[in-house]
């Protein structure tokens, strides 16, 4: 570990020092035969900087750092400092203020409520997921792969009962429990909320102070790497939530880091979110862009993460997001687009996906911004996928309705197909939909008891059949009744009740169908893959459609009934005079249905229906979902 060189300065100044975390921060090393730690921090507007910590009894003048020009990087080797030591940077500003800052590039942090950084060596981490990494690298097209994501908050998925502390599972414990569950259910990926270090539990990790550190709530960086490694050995991808949109004002964090607005826009109309009370990164500053890009690359290249779900993209793209007149500044053309953030996205997505084939970048983008997943050559942002918030709102608005009123809102369920080919979408029912008095998924459903479960099963059947990758937040797969709270584990005890167990089994079977049949995922945006059989049966609130495979074999036909009425001889139009094999029937006893005996195979006859030359009749139960293979 040599000092911060002229070449390092040059790359940082250009914003292209992609492994910056190996130079800035704290790194155990040797100098002239002595063991110690090399510290480096970017603080160009500081008057002076010292490193303070357990190795010098937090004395402010014991270890003053050397300033390197022209970048204003401070560095120092401290003999005797060692792995595990706590430290901060003590910064004196030109106007005489004294600041005590955690290291922006720290790889590990003290457990909250402590706010110091902790010396560690992440170069020692060992991996044994070569098979997974090679498979990932060989992936030519992420869009044609199955993707069913289980969104997890690690501190509240499951806990140890009766412990003095919160009872969190460590990363290692979580790896074993979660991998087993996810494999059995049939998900392809887990998406972890709130992994980057953050001070306040109630922010769920969306107000980050440590962009280069996995939170110490669940263990060490090695423990976190073990989690990823173990998931990969079980063929499960790992996606992290990543928050480049804003950061909190906590005194030890990035806000006014060296006494000036170093990481945030200096003009408060650009640099502050009035709604969230947070600071906005300055995307025009090369060193700030380098800080964010370096963080993303570290997670993907050093920790083998398979994708980043980028939080609050819309708040970055629009200068007036969440702001009243007078609270924002227009761009140079007088518009409300943040041109610097747009360039940042094009740069980071192109760079990350170019360097790491098989990795995905996912935008949580809630507006109709064009070409979020379009190529840079078409003025797109070059994300791999975009969360389909439009589908989510329409779907939930429809599902909440008393079935009597659904006939007048039929188009809410069909509208998403009118724009399906404009982006690569993920259909999401995320944590955001089951907090803040929004009710859990099961309690959004109309009716009482059994009706709620029947409604939700119909909804899930439609969701899995509909084009787009899938994401479901933990607990909703078994009908968690209470709203989610980060302060307790999921209500796993509900699985002792048949209805919850049956819902879980049903969702599991849907996921296994999704993964088994390429028609379900190989060409989500292509009209050759999807065809409405009847999108207009609003009087009966029934939707029927086909998912067709490229090979022409193993196509699927879905029928979903959204009323409590049985349609005894529901005639369904089909394209060929073949056998239609029933592979999922939501009325099955194991899903809590009536279990009425019915044929497993249906022969189409030459009888026109739904503009198709052939058809067959099926007795469609109340809230029934039927899936056929042909």
What's the short version?
The chain has 630 residues and is of the alpha/beta class.
List keywords for this structure.
single chain, 630 residues, alpha/beta, Immunoglobulin-like, six-stranded antiparallel sheet, 22% strand
Describe the structure.
By secondary structure, the protein is an alpha/beta fold. Among the domains are: 119 residues, Immunoglobulin-like (Sandwich), CATH 2.60.40; 100 residues, Immunoglobulin-like (Sandwich). It has an eight-stranded parallel barrel, surrounded by five helices. The protein has a six-stranded antiparallel β-sheet with strand order 21-22-23-28-25-26, with helices on one face. The longest helix has 19 residues. The radius of gyration is 27 Å and the shape is elongated. The termini are far apart.
């Amino acid at each position: 570990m040599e000092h911060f060189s002229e070449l390092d300065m040059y790359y940082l100044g250009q914003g292209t020092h992609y492994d910056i975390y190996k130079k800035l921060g704290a790194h155990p090393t040797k100098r002239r035969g002595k063991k110690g730690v090399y510290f480096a921090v970017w603080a160009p507007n500081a008057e002076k900087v010292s490193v303070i910590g357990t190795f010098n009894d937090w004395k402010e003048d014991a270890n003053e750092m050397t300033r390197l020009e022209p970048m204003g990087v401070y560095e120092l080797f401290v003999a005797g400092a060692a792995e595990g030591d706590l430290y901060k940077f003590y910064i004196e500003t030109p106007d005489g203020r004294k600041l005590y800052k955690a290291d922006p590039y720290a790889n590990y942090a003290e457990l909250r409520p402590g706010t110091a950084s902790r010396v560690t060596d992440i170069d020692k981490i060992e991996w044994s997921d070569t098979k997974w990494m090679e498979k990932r690298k060989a992936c030519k097209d992420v869009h044609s792969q199955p993707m069913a994501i289980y969104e997890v908050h690690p501190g509240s998925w499951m806990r140890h009962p009766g412990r003095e502390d919160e009872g969190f599972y460590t990363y290692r414990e979580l790896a074993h429990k979660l991998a087993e569950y996810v494999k059995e259910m049939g998900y392809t990926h887990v998406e972890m909320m709130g992994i980057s270090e953050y001070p306040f539990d109630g922010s769920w990790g969306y107000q980050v102070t440590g962009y280069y550190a996995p939170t110490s709530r669940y263990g060490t960086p090695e423990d976190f790497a073990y989690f990823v490694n173990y998931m990969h050995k079980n063929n499960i991808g790992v996606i992290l939530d990543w928050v480049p949109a804003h950061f909190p004002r906590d005194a030890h964090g990035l806000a006014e880091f060296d006494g000036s607005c170093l990481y945030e826009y200096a003009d408060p109309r650009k640099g502050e979110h009035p709604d969230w009370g947070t600071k906005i990164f300055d995307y025009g500053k090369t060193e700030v862009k380098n800080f964010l890009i370096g963080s993303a690359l570290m997670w993907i290249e050093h920790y083998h993460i398979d994708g980043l779900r980028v939080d609050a993209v819309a708040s970055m793209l629009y200068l007036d997001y969440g702001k009243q007149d007078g609270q924002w500044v227009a761009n140079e053309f007088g518009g409300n687009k943040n041109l610097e953030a747009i360039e940042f996205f094009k740069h980071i997505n192109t760079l990350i996906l170019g360097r790491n084939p098989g990795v995905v970048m996912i935008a949580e983008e809630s507006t109709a911004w064009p070409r979020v997943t379009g190529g840079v050559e078409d003025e797109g942002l070059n994300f791999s996928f975009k969360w389909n918030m439009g589908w989510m709102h329409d779907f939930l608005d429809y599902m909440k309705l008393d079935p009597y009123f659904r006939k007048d809102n039929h188009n809410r369920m069909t509208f998403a197909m009118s724009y399906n080919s404009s982006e690569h979408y993920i259909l999401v029912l995320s944590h955001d939909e089951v907090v803040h008095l929004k009710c859990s998924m099961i309690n959004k459903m109309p009716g009482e008891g059994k009706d709620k479960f029947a409604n939700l099963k119909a909804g899930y059947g439609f969701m899995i059949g509909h084009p787009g990758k899938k994401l479901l937040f933990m607990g909703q797969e078994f009908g968690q009744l209470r709203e989610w709270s980060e302060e307790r584990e999921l209500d796993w005890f509900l699985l002792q009740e048949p209805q919850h167990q049956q819902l879980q089994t049903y969702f599991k079977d849907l996921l296994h169908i999704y993964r088994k049949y390429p028609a379900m995922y190989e060409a989500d945006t292509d009209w050759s893959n999807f065809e409405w059989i009847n999108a207009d049966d609003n009087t009966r609130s029934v939707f029927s459609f086909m998912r067709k495979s490229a090979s022409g074999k193993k196509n699927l036909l879905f029928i979903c009934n959204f009323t409590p009425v049985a349609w005894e001889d529901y005639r369904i139009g089909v394209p060929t005079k073949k056998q239609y094999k029933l592979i999922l029937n939501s009325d099955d006893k194991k899903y809590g249905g009536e279990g009425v005996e019915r044929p497993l195979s249906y022969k189409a006859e030459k009888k026109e229906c739904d503009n198709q030359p052939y058809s067959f009749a099926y007795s469609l139960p109340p809230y029934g979902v039927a899936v056929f293979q042909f």
